[in-house]
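<amino_acid_chain>
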Amino acid sequence: MNDDRMFTDVDRAKQRVRERVWDVLDAGGAVHDSTAHGRIPNFVGSREAATGLGELAAWKHARVIKSVPDKAQLPVRALALAEGKTVFMAVPELADRHPFYLLDPEALTVPPAEAASSRVAAGIAPKVGVEALRPVDMVVLGSVAVNRAGVRIGKGAGYSDLEFAFLTEAGLIGDHTVVVTTVHRLQVLDEDLPATMHDVGVDVIVTPEEIITCPSPHRPSGLIREHLDAAKIASIPVLAARGPVR
């Protein structure tokens, strides 16, 4: 089987998992939106999960947090800012030569709970390039599904994995960086999940009821450029500047 066919099959398998989990969340009334489908679920209990995350030693020691902008992780971002941690999150689809919003708790012009909203952050936070960032102590990811080994499935766009890869190449993410996801308990699956070499695994899963430590999750060491097509690279300035896929 060639690589193109293999990745197509993996993508299809991931989508089947997404659809199943979205259906279960909708049936269980486990999201705040009208449906979980097509997104990182804004799950019921996200505040409680953020509180649980805040009790971890790794969180208490972290000073710089890289977070996804999804609604489910808004309580995590708000907690980080309230505790004086620096937060940065990606510009939508990384479609800017300065692809991150930098939220400095000492420079906020609105309360942390407001600044943590992706919509508000887009209006008040400066956009910065990779060179302006500091080493990352914790990466906070959203998930559609995750298993207890730390294999994670996102909504399918792949931006979190790309961000992780080029921040790793830049030396901003390393062995010291802890990767976490906050999810509803229905998103935690006791089964093998499909994954590729560019997918980022998580060290810790936090639900409103439980903290799960994952053994030896997979981490890519950088961009796997042969997994990216020319159109994807061209749409992301920070990647386009590096030149075409070879």
